Amino acid sequence: MKSITIKGSERESVGKVATKALRNAGLVPCVLYGGTEPAIHFTAEEKSFKGLVYTPNVHTVVIELGNGVSMNAILQDIQFHPVSGQIMHMDFYKLHEDKEITMEVPVKVTGNSKGVMAGGVLNLNQRKLKVRALPANLPDFVYADITNLEMGNKLYVTDLPTDNFKLLHSDNTVVCQVRISRAAMKAAQEAAKAAKSSGKK
């Protein structure tokens, strides 16, 4: 999985007044936790999170705090201001190479469906899927090949390739399906009506 580097600074004061001052200065209060070590409170410029937050893709994060130490993490939680949309707070979870973690990973559709080419409509039921893996094995995408989907067919999680990771969904979870379009349905009805009429002659 691709990674984004966030450069920040540790902070000692975590009170409301200090936090408000940080936000007014364009900084985001953050906390990094995980493992046996105490949680680390830090701040980083709000603009540095643009490539992490405002994207449909997911990334791991390398947090650098200016003391020569960098830590691998994932975004665990984020809070926005209800009116302005400003990032108010972010929680990160520290990654350990030997411990599996769970993340939601976007689904990427590949191939050209036979059903879509015949006039059907592709519905993507799951835009993201919950994946569990070691940090090194986290995928950027879960690929859904729709090549063999005929009109009316469904693609289930059990049909997806899972290399070194697990999908945490029930076997009957539908990832996507090809529905019959209104135009195709109308054409089929007209064809059936025409065939019925010609049969009466």
Key features?
201 residues, alpha+beta, Ribosomal Protein L25, Chain P, RNA Polymerase Alpha Subunit, Chain A, domain 2, 2 domains, seven-stranded mixed β-sheet, four-stranded mixed β-sheet, 4 helices, 18% helix, 39% strand
Characterise this structure.
The chain folds into two domains: 3-95, Ribosomal Protein L25, Chain P (Beta Barrel), CATH 2.40.240.10; 102-186, Ribosomal protein L25, C-terminal domain (RNA Polymerase Alpha Subunit, Chain A, domain 2, Beta Complex). Helix content is 18%, strand content 39%. It has helices spanning 16-24, 50-53, 114-117, 182-200, and strands spanning 3-7, 9-10, 27-33, 40-45, 60-64, 70-80, 87-94, 101-110, 121-124, 128-133, 142-145, 154-156, 166-167, 174-179. The strands form three sheets. The protein has a seven-stranded mixed sheet, covered by helices on one side. A four-stranded mixed sheet has the order 11-8-10-13, with no helix packed on it. A hairpin with a 5-residue loop joins strand 5 (60-64) and strand 6 (70-80). The protein is elongated, with a radius of gyration of 24 Å. The model has no long low-confidence stretch (mean pLDDT 88).
